[in-house]
Each structure stands twice: as C-alpha cells, then as structure tokens.
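Hi U.,

Before I forget, here's the chain from the pilot set. I'm dumping it here mostly so it's searchable later in email.
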Amino acid sequence: FETFSNDFESLDIEADKSEIIENQYYFSGDVELKSDSYFIAADDLQVSSTDNSTLAQGNVRFQDKTYLITSDLLSAKKDDEDELIATATNANYQDFAVGPGGANGYTEIISKTPSSVFLKNATYSLCPIKQNDWLIDADSIELNLDNNRGVADNATIIFYGFPIFYLPKYSWVLEGRGSGFLTPSYDSYTETSQTKSSY
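Structure:
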C-alpha cells in the first residue's frame, strides 16, 4: 500500500521526464502522483490545471482509501463537490477496506467515487485473488458504499467455472449480515386424521 501526501493543496509528482505546454503537464517514465486522498502510478501521466483532470496510461496503479485498481488507462477528475471520480478500462480491482477478504474481480469499465463503484461487464468475488472458487459475472454491478448494498444486472453465479444460477437482478449486503437465500426443504408428513403420508 502506498502512503498519501500530507499536503492538502497540491500534488506530489515524481517522474523521469516532465514537460509543460500551456496548462497541460506531461510526465513520463515511472511516474508517481500522490495527493492527500489517492495515489496513481503509470508510464505516462497528463495533468490539466484548467479542469483538474488527470489521464494515466500504461501499467496504471490507482489507490484511494478503499480500492486498488490496475489498468492500462485511467482518468481522474474532481466533480463540483470536490469528490474524485476515477474511471478505468479493462481493469482489475480489489476492495481492501474490509481486509484481505475484500471483493475483487475484473471489469471492462470501473467508475469509482468515494461513495459508489460502478462496474460494467464485470466479475465480483470475495475469494482470494486468482483463486475465485465462486464469482458473480454480470452486465453491470453497482456498489453503493454509503448504503452498504450491491446490485447486479443480468448476473450469473459461477461456481468452480460452471454457471449454476442466473438472476436478472441480484442484490446483496456488501459488508456484515443481511438477508439472503433461504434453501428450500423437502419432507414428508402425516396428518393425524390420515394414514397416508403427504409431501
């Protein structure tokens, strides 16, 4: 895990090469950017001072207070409420906020804010990384960190590589206890007024 900067008003950037063209800052070669709330490492990095955006390319590693993301392309920008929105394509991710057993998977697109995560064409598992005995494969997954809920659309539950269950919409608790599947039971019984068993 990387440490963040102690300076709340500026970015700490290290790189082999840097160049400034108007309001654009270009960095290349083992670039590391640190702010007070996130870290980005990449082969190439572009920072725009006009809209406070960052574009990272090549061997990208992103870390904020809850997630690790690796990708070849990541963009980051602060919104009107000064919250960072990080978007990566063809990315691997891990939620390390809950410890080593945090959610992980692969996604075509991940969009991360401090309060939510949106995944498109993604997998989601709580198994150790690269040991996913089970996972959810879905068209989209939305993780609401404030409400502690995950919702997957067109989800297939895969167990040891075999799809076992399809759900058009599936919702679960991200951390802690919550309601879930109740397994059905099958049994026989005999009414007191009858001699034949029923099921």
